[in-house]
Amino acid sequence: MTEKVPLRLLELYSGIGGMQFAMKGADVPYCLVAAMELNDVANKVYKHNFPGDNLMQKNIEGLSVKEMEILNADIILMSPPCQPFTRIGNQKASEDPRTKSFLNILRIIKSMANPPKYILLENVKGFETSETREQLLSVLISVGYNYQEFLISPLQFGVPNSRLRYYLLAKLKPLNFQFPTSSEPIDHIPYVSPEKQSADHCDDVIVARDSIPYSCCRCGRPCLKVNGLIDPCPLSEYLEATADDEEFYLSGDILGRLGTVLDIVTPSSKRSCCFTKAYGTYVKGTGSVITTMKSESEIQETFESLKDTVDERLRSEQLLNLKLRYFSPQEVANLMCFPRYFSFPAATTTKQKFKLLGNSINVFVVSQLLKNSLLTDCR
Fold it and tell me: Beta-strand (E) ranges in the chain?
C-alpha cells in the first residue's frame, strides 16, 4: 500500500488555531503551508501552540492570486468574520467592510489556474440567508466544485454546548461526496457505512441519518442515544477544579441587576448556551454561568422565593448564596473541544481569552466534517 502524500493545508483567519487542531483530529496526513491572521493577540496564542509553523500576520484583503498560486494549497480551512451575518450585528453582509477580505478570496479562487481540491468554511447561522453566500455558491459552481452545506451544533455530537453554525464543504470535480448532496443546508452528517464507501456512484449509496458512532471528545466513551438522539455527557466532564476561583464568581451588583436573565447550569447539566466573545464582560446572551455548590432544585427554590422581589439588594443577597460563576477560559476551551494540551501564553488576559474563544470554532465538529464528509477519499 502506497503512503498517502500529505495535503498542503492553508488556514485562513487562523485565530487561535482551531482549524488546524480539527485537521489533526481528522487523522489525515497534512502539512501546513501557511496560516494567516491579522489579530496580534490571536497570533501569539497560535504561535504558542504551533511554534514551528508558517504563521503570517497578514490582511487577507491584500492577498493576491500569485501568492495563492505559490502556496499551492490542496485544502483551505477558514472561518471569515461573522459580524456581518449575526442576528445582533448590522447584517449588511457583502456591504460590510469586514466582508471585503472574504470577497477577495472568492475572486482569487475564481482566478486560480489550480484552485484547491478541498474547501471548508465555517460561519454563524444567518450566513446561509445572505447575499454573500449566493456569491460563494456562484464562484464554486463556476470553478467546478461539488459542495454541501450544513447547519449543525455540538449537541448533536455529544458535547453539552449549543453552538449552531453554518458549514460549507466543497470538493473540486471530479472529486465527489460519498452521499447524495442537497441544494439546501442539512442538519446532520450523513453516515456512509464502510462497505458502501467504495461505491462508484454516490446515488447508489445507502445513507443513514445520524448514525456515525461518535465517542465523547472529552472522556472518550461511546456516545449513547436516547430516543434516536445522542445523549451528551454532563458538564462535569468539562470542568476544571482550579476554576472555583473568586476571579470567576459573579458580583452581588451583577446578580442584583441581572440575576433573572442568567442561564444557570450545574455539573450534572447536559447543556450550556453558546459562549460569545463578550463572555465575562457582559452577562445577557453571552453564555451560561454555573454553580458547583447547589443543585438544580435549590436553584429553582431560590428563584421561586425571589419572583416577587423588586429590591436589588435583597435579590443580590439571596443569589450570592448560589455561588454562581463564569466558566473559566479553560472550561470554555474544553467545551469547544480544544485538545487538553492547548494553552494560552501566560501574558494573555482573561478578557482576551474569552474574546478569542468566542471568535473560534468547535474543534470536534469540524474534525468530524473533515473526517466523515470532506476528506473521505484521502484515506
Answer: 7-12, 30-37, 55-57, 75-78, 118-124, 145-152, 165-172, 191-192, 207-208, 225-226, 229-230, 264-265, 289-290, 325-326
Which residues are tagged catalytic?
82
To the question of pTM greater than 0.90 for the whole model, the response is: yes
Q: How many CB atoms lie within 10 A of CB 210?
A: 15
3-state secondary structure of 373: helix
Per-residue model confidence as pLDDT tens for the chain (379 residues): 456 789 999 999 999 999 999 999 999 999 999 999 999 999 999 999 999 999 999 999 999 999 999 999 999 999 998 665 555 555 555 556 678 999 999 999 999 999 999 999 999 999 999 999 999 999 999 999 999 999 999 999 999 999 999 999 999 999 999 999 999 999 988 876 665 655 555 555 555 555 677 888 888 888 877 766 788 999 999 999 887 778 899 999 999 999 889 999 999 999 999 999 999 999 999 999 999 999 999 999 998 988 888 888 888 999 999 999 999 999 999 999 999 999 999 999 999 999 999 999 999 999 999 999 999 987 6
